[in-house]
């Protein structure tokens, strides 16, 4: 870049050298560029990757160009500026120095020279009120003027000593003469100037036969960490000589110590945050967080000085589809505004094409954040939740089926029937000594007064002694009772005796063992865990509904993931997000979280899982992560393409990971500083003490069972009382009939016959003699009266 007023000669020398060495040189005339044109030129240089730039123009114009480059914050990293100006220390490069640009220049005047210091002091003390000159240090152009006047004075003094009078007029030549006629005294003055030898403010002043200054020295300067510093010198005889003294450093750290590196980052809790009293601090001390500590550890391991700077547009970095320009932190690395990016910057393919990443310092994935739903109150019969509704129905049917099968096999199996002999003698029977002799003839039997009802009963009991009762414990009610007792693991007072009945009981016991064990194992979890009913459980639920809106950060890797994804579910989600009105994209994470909290469950935010987990730990503890991660990726430290920092920083990240420091940093900023307790405070499933609402159904069943038992007892009492009253009425009627001369046979209505059902479901049967009916004598009035007398 040159100015036609002073740079054409330098440009010609550069072009000649480039032709000899086969260099490719692009020349730009600065006078033909406006400010907008110059900015466009800087953008073109980024794409062309032309990093060596020579600027040759006057000092005021050079200061304007440097300030414009610094204001754009581009074309700095990896660029090398050579300033074809002899007053390097006269330039204002404060902003350039902050941005860590690589600048080389030349200094003609040695400010540490006593003669220069004296003139500079006199110049600052000069009273210039009448001239209205600004008070500033002497520049190299002023020093050249001073030396020029000194050379003229020395030349005229030499002429005076040589007694050459240049004051006489002589013959004046004609200006338009052809060929031109030189002034006669001019040759004397030229010769006197060539003979001048002196030490001026700009060093050794001496001229050759062509009038060119020769045998002078230039100090080669470089923009250092704090102030410009001399790295060598140049003279006509030796060329460039380096005088910089540098300590030997490892090859991988070469070139990292002699400048302040700019680390770009973004305010994103807990990665990078401003301290509460950050106004009291300066520089890097204003920031805190995971990435703030990570940057300090990396700089400590690599050994360089850095300065944290926030990205201007508060974006991570994406390429604009129209301008193809990168924004955010990626753009600052691409365009040389920063040396390193230490932030939650996702490693992606498109970013890897323009910048370099280290190994991931954190692994994560895209997750879904929703507003935490209200906890569902446990139902009255929540104790039934460990087993599904279908299982309970199957258990009921199995219970009924087992009871019926047990009843049937007990009826069919002969081993379930047992006989009971009546060994008790009727105490009312008379002894043999007191019995009367039985009549031998029918007339005696019929008309004998000793034949009474008591003798008839005695004969019936004798027959019952001879025919035992056969009973079966497993009636239908006892079978139901046995199955219920086995299921409740309480046992029963009866057990199967037959092989078939025991097989039924055994398989039922095994069945109840497994069911009860499974129920008990799940019951503790269901009763002690409070569950929240989430409207969605994953990306599939989001994709197939439209009631809950969902979106991502505008201009980040998450948005790019959905835009480029070829998976059907994610394509459907991207189609919805792209066409949603109002827009579902947010400018930053804080806006997305705020939208989730204010939407009353009608907005879901898609973000990295690490950030989701952190926000879940922040008050008011009303967000939660649902479902698994949609992908797998990592955060990495980024550097410009080809940067010397990449390998040292990468080694530092690997070392920190092996030392376990990265895990310690995450635990410190995620969980140790959490505000919602262990597991995010109100997590989706929270273990707590049982409340009455958890087991209220059990008490309801207990009260209901007690009430039912009392009701059944009342019914039984009423029923039994009615039966007894009927039986007593029948006995009274029979007695009255006997007393009134009724048939005796009717008085035996209470006798046993056939098989009857005993208590508690027992089945009782009797074996009567085949000729039992014929063996009974006919009973007349006497028999009836005897029954009446003995029965009453």
UniProtKB/TrEMBL annotation:
GO terms for biological process: cell surface receptor signaling pathway. Coiled coil: none annotated. Keywords: Cell membrane, Glycoprotein, Ion channel, Ion transport, Ligand-gated ion channel, Membrane, Postsynaptic cell membrane, Receptor, Signal, Synapse, Transmembrane, Transmembrane helix, Transport. Residues 418-468 are annotated as: Disordered. Residues 260-672 form the Ionotropic glutamate receptor C-terminal domain. The keyword Transport applies. Pfam families: ANF_receptor, Lig_chan, Lig_chan-Glu_bd. GO terms for molecular function: transmitter-gated monoatomic ion channel activity. The chain crosses the membrane at residues 387-409, 507-527, 697-719. Residues 429-443 have a biased composition (Low complexity). Gene3D superfamilies: 1.10.287.70, 3.40.50.2300, Periplasmic binding protein-like II. Its main location: membrane. Residues 270-335 form the Ionotropic glutamate receptor L-glutamate and glycine-binding domain. It is found in: Postsynaptic cell membrane. One of its GO terms (cellular component) is postsynaptic membrane. It is a multi-pass membrane protein. It comes from the Eukaryota. This is Glutamate receptor 1-like.
């Amino acid at each position: 870049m040159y100015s036609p007023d002073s740079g054409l000669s330098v440009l010609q020398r550069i072009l000649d050298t480039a032709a000899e060495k086969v260099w490719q040189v692009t020349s730009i005339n600065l006078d033909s560029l406006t400010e907008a044109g110059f900015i466009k030129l800087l953008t073109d240089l980024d794409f062309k990757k032309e990093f060596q730039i020579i600027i040759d123009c006057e000092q005021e114009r050079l200061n304007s160009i440097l300030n414009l480059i610094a204001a754009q914050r581009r074309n700095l990293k990896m660029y090398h500026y050579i300033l074809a100006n002899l007053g390097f220390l006269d330039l204002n490069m404060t902003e350039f120095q902050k941005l860590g640009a690589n600048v080389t220049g030349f200094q003609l005047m040695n400010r540490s020279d006593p003669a220069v210091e004296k003139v500079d002091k006199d110049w600052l003390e000069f009273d210039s009120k009448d001239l209205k000159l600004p008070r500033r240090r002497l520049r190299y152009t002023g020093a050249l003027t001073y030396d020029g006047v000194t050379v003229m004075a020395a030349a005229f003094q030499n002429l005076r000593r040589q007694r050459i009078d240049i004051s006489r007029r002589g013959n004046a030549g004609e200006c338009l003469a052809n060929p031109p006629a030189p002034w006669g005294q001019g040759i004397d003055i030229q010769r006197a100037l060539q003979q001048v030898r002196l030490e001026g403010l700009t060093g050794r002043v001496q001229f050759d036969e062509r009038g060119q200054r020769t045998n002078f020295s230039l100090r080669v300067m470089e923009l250092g960490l704090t102030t410009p510093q001399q790295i060598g010198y140049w003279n006509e005889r030796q060329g460039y000589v380096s005088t910089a003294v540098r300590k030997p450093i490892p090859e991988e750290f070469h070139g990292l110590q002699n400048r302040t590196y700019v680390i770009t980052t973004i305010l994103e809790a807990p990665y990078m945050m401003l301290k509460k009293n950050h106004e009291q601090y300066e520089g890097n001390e204003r920031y805190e967080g995971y990435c703030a500590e990570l940057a300090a550890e990396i700089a400590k391991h690599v050994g360089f000085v850095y300065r944290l700077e926030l990205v201007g547009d508060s974006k991570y970095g994406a390429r604009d589809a129209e301008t193809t320009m990168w924004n955010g932190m990626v753009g600052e690395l691409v365009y040389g505004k920063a040396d390193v990016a230490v932030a939650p910057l996702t490693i992606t393919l498109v970013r890897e094409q323009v910048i370099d990443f280290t190994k991931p310092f954190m692994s994560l994935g895209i997750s879904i954040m929703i507003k935490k739903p209200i906890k569902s109150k446990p139902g009255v019969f929540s104790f039934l939740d460990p087993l599904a509704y279908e299982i309970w129905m199957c258990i009921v049917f199995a219970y009924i089926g087992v009871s019926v099968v047990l009843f049937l096999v007990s009826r069919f199996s002969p081993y379930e029937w047992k006989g009971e002999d009546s060994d008790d003698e009727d105490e009312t029977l008379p002894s043999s000594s007191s019995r009367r002799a039985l009549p031998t003839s029918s007339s005696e039997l019929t008309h004998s007064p000793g034949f009474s009802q008591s003798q008839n009963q005695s004969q019936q009991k004798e027959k019952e002694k001879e025919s035992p009762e056969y009973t079966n414990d497993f009636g239908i009610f006892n079978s139901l009772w046995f199955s219920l007792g086995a299921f409740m693991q309480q046992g029963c007072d009866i057990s199967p005796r037959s092989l078939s009945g025991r097989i039924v009981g055994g398989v039922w016991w095994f069945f109840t063992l497994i069911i009860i064990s499974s129920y008990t194992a799940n019951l503790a979890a269901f009763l002690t865990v409070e569950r929240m009913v989430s409207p969605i459980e994953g990306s599939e639920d989001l994709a197939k509904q439209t009631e809950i809106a969902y979106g991502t950060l505008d201009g980040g890797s998450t948005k790019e993931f959905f835009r480029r994804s070829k998976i059907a579910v994610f394509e459907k989600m991207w189609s919805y997000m792209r066409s949603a009105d109002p827009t579902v994209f947010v400018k930053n994470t804080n806006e997305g979280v705020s939208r989730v909290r204010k939407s009353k469950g009608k907005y879901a935010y898609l973000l990295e899982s690490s950030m989701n987990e952190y926000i879940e730990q922040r008050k008011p503890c009303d967000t939660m992560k649902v479902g698994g991660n949609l992908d797998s990726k990592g955060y990495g430290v980024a550097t410009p393409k080809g940067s010397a920092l990449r390998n040292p920083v990468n080694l530092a990240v690997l070392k920190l990971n092996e030392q376990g420091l990265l895990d310690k940093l995450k635990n410190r900023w995620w969980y140790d500083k959490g505000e919602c307790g262990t597991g995010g405070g109100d997590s989706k499933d929270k273990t707590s003490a049982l409340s009455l609402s958890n087991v209220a159904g059990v008490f309801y069943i207990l009260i209901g069972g007690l009430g039912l038992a009392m009701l059944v007892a009342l019914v039984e009492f009423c029923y039994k009382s009615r039966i007894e009253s009927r039986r007593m009425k029948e006995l009274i009627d029979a007695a009255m009939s006997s007393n009134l001369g009724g048939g005796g046979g009717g008085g035996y209505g209470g006798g046993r016959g056939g098989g009857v059902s005993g208590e508690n479901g027992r089945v009782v049967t009797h074996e009567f003699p085949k000729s039992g009916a014929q063996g009974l004598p006919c009973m007349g009035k006497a028999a009836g009266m005897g029954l009446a007398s003995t029965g009453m």
